[in-house]
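To assess whether the prediction recovers the assembly geometry, we first specified each molecular entity separately, as shown.
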Amino acid sequence: MAVFSKILIANRSEIARRIIRTCSEMGIATVAVFSEYDTDALFVHDADEAVALLPGSSYLDGSSIIEAALRTGAAAIHPGYGFLSENAEFASAVEAAGLTFIGPAPETIGAMGSKLESRELMQTAGVPVLAVAELPDGLDAVEAAAVLGYPLLVKASRGGGGKGMRIVAEPDDLAGAIESAAREAESAFGDGTVYLERFVSNPRHIEVQIVGDGEGHVVHLYERECSIQRRFQKVIEETPSPDLDTELRRRLWDAAVKAGEAVSYRGAGTVEFIVDPSGDFAFLEMNTRIQVEHPVTEMTTGIDLVRMQIEIAAGVPLMAQADVPARVGHAIEARLNAESPADGYLPSTGVVHRFTVPDGVRVDTGIADGSVVTHHYDAMIAKIISHAPSREEAAAVLARALRGSRIHGVDTNRDLLVAILSDDEFLAGAVDTHFLERKGEEFAASPMSEAALRSSAAAAALGIQAENRRKADVLASIPSGWRNLASQHQTTTLLHGIDPITVSYRLVRGSVEVDVDGVSLPIDIAYLIEPEVIELGIDGVRRTFEVNFVGDGVYVDSPLGSTHFTVAPRFAVSGLATQEGSMTAKTPGVVVAVSTQLGDAVEPGDTVMVIEAMKMEQAIVSVTGGRVSAVHFAVGDQVAQGEILVEIESEEDDG
Amino acid sequence: MTVLRSSLDTRSTEYRENVEAMQRHLAALDALLAKAIVGGGEKYVERHHKRGKLLARERIELLVDPDSPFLELSPIAGAETEYSIGAGVVTGIGVVESVECMIVASDPTARGGAVNPIGLAKGLRALEIAKQNRLPVVYLVESAGGDLPRQIDVFLPGGRTFRDLTRLSAARIPTISLVFGSSTAGGAYLPGMSDFTVFVEGRAKVFLGGPPLVKMATGEESTDEELGGAEMHATTSGLADFMATDEIDAIRIGRMLVARLNWKKLGPGPSRSVTEPMHDADELLGVVSADLKVPFEIKEVISRIVDGSDFDEFKPLYGTSLVTGWARIHGYDIGILANHKGILFSEESQKAAHFIQLANHTDTPLLFIQNVTGFMVGASYEQGGIVKHGSMMINAVSNSTVPHLTLQVGGSYGAGNYAMAGRPYDPRLLFVWPTAKTCIMGAEQLAGTLSIVARAAAKRSGTEFDEEADVQRRTMIKMKIEQEEKAVYLSGRVLDDGIIDPRDTRTALGIALSVVHSAEVAGTDRFGVFRM
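The predicted structure of the complete assembly is given in tokenized form:
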């Protein structure tokens, strides 16, 4: 039964592709909408039809999206997550246009979209809730905060995904946190309302998937553990929740169903709870849409949640709780983000030259080789989900898949994910939302040992060498670097980040001598099969190093790990050096605040500018003290990576 | 297609002894090469580095394409002479921006890069190779000029350098000078005669006369910079086309210049796929007899240097002490003439003359593999026309216009050296194995011959022949000749293009073949009158 003949997907990237997949399986035609940054994105190609959105508001431009649906003859709109998925006005407008909104009733969205309103509703329905303080205009925030006590949370009323949320440890930080949370909330959700909430220390974040038919019948599809977070964004999600007694688990399910029933919930939704170490829990919020982490539920129940959403929207009767399949095994999802965990989770943008994940796991992604990650959207590039009989095995399978993934072109949190999945505490199920804060430093340590890095650098240099020979126009069949009088080795300088690594080598009659930064590598065997496949036996252990060349970049993947080098030019081009005291943009972005003016005195550590990239704010902090000698950008300006933002002249320079 | 089989018994005592003998020679060669690397000596290398300068070979390594091969020519020039090993200059063929170039770099650690007679010969030989094979020339200059105490040996012969440079240019072979230091007096004509010049700022010094000489000549007070600094030449005199900020920058500009030559080789390129020989090149160490008097199977050499060990022999049943046939090396077609048992008879000579003409008809380069004791002597051979037939062969070798490469694996004696494209017959490149020997005749024969002549003279004049003195003289002559016939002795005097490790033979020949194809490869129909 084709419930709808055509569905428009008001979203992008992986979730758009995910929805298109189910639609295709159900025989439903699909329409994508896309922004000017997504003209060549995979989901646009995947959809049967696609309509360009006007630059600017794009995925938040409800009326254009509805127009696109009408123009293409789509019968329903699936909002995915984020963007307009929890926008009651949009849902109403969709229905007013005679289309079906795949999601709950607009009133439900409205009620649940306001954290404060939903909290009240739940309290009335008998679901436990947390203490909060609202901040109506004119109310003294410091006073309100004092009632709750510190530390506390500043939260955006319409927030989600950690955006517009700040943790405040002491009264001095309160005003700044409120201002920045409000600004972020305004930018992300179009509503800058924030409130304060009691902060539960070492809590767990557990959510329950529910599905309702809109007429009071609600079933739950078990819980998901989402405690592994960084800056309030989920990183690892799994089901079942580890180390949870049956009684508590059942109480969470029941509370979620009760919450759904209280609003006569329609469609798929998620009730989020905060669970403290003693087992007390409280309603946090309800997400009235498909969740990013829905695949773990699908893997363990065999249910296609997107199909379920579509069917309910089409009026197909909902199963009874008794008919919900039992969970089988354990599923874990890792969110692969284009970011640098070691660099404060700084978003990483650029062309993804290669993206492959080994078989044996589910991969929900919006990208492929050659895709471009821009700063315009979220940093998540893929969700990788493992499913295995036990939690330990699911973690091991996922870690192995991540290790074996080839991700070239952008920095990712891959190593961090692997570190989490291999961590003893994690494996013991001892998780809470501060897990990463506690373990961050331990995980941030370079995942690659010095020796592994040296071996990878050697493989990179030998790969470059083979590539040089392959590209040679003359004397191509003559042995590499042949000398009848060898006065020195061939030398390649690679940059690992900004650290130079010098590899010198000599190939002579089938044997290979390699020094890395003056340390001789004990190479017993070397098969330089082709530039991309370097097999090295080092100190008795033979490994294959895959080498990928992209411009002057070299990516090396091996059982020792994955790393990336830039080939230092043999001949430096002068005149491009940045002056000391100038601050440059680490990523492209938009200037959202300028905190200094020409001539201002700054101290080291002062914030001089704030840039937003991928919906994340980055403070540009002065490393030197002195006087501002130039401010190159104003609020609203777009900056490119590496551009000089602010220049500071140190005081000594004047004298 | 005929894949050669090997019957070399690598477990035999003879093989093992051959390998040991060759390894002794290689160890001696390595010791000389190690000396070449330090040029003027450790002390001067250190001083040079301390001044922030690169050594000649460090400059070359930066100049050539990463991982490309570099064939250094006559690396041990100066050996067994009064000069340092290398003779103060490094020459070789390297690839710069995909162009095979002749690179000539003065070695400033050896007496300030002053030109001595051996170094001069090496430099002139490099220009000759560049001219014959149409190789762009890159000079890396830092030289104190002529070695004044040796002026008699360098002043007049050295003048050719500048003549040859401009003649190269006239032949549309580009010349580039990168000047790293002094290039004064006569040396000023190196950049002067070059198509392109790059001077290193604050380092290059190019003038006809320095401050003291100018003061002597005209009384004018002047500084080095005024007379010949890079900035002056780049902005005022125009002798410098480019001013480089430092040595590395000069090399960068040099590479840029070569990249912009729009260079095209005139000969055909190699075949697309190249098969390595079926037999191990390492075994070449044990092929040649430790005692050159013991004959060895030359096809054991051929099968280890040609593509796929594939060698199609021409006239295999006739004149069997000279093997002729066709093969490929690194994808280039080549005709091979190789001495098998050392002696050239009438049949071998006629076969060679025939084969050389065939190669000229098909524009196929020739490789001469020498292990030759000479043309056969004796009444029946003279009566059989050995001189006539030998002349045919020498005529063919002399007038052939396809590129000739010569490899000396054993002896090279007498007119056999000439007939087999020895040095006087201008092979494009001549490589020598460490065990090889070159002489007008064998040391013993030469000493013996002189003794017989002396004895006859004594008899004619009726004086008594001093047997004791004869023995002494014979021994002395033999020792002298044994010294002079050695590969190292000849190589030290730039009478070859380098002694090579036998295992590198295929590589050296592969480079040489590619090099000769930079110029047009064309045979001829025009030979001298063949005396029939």
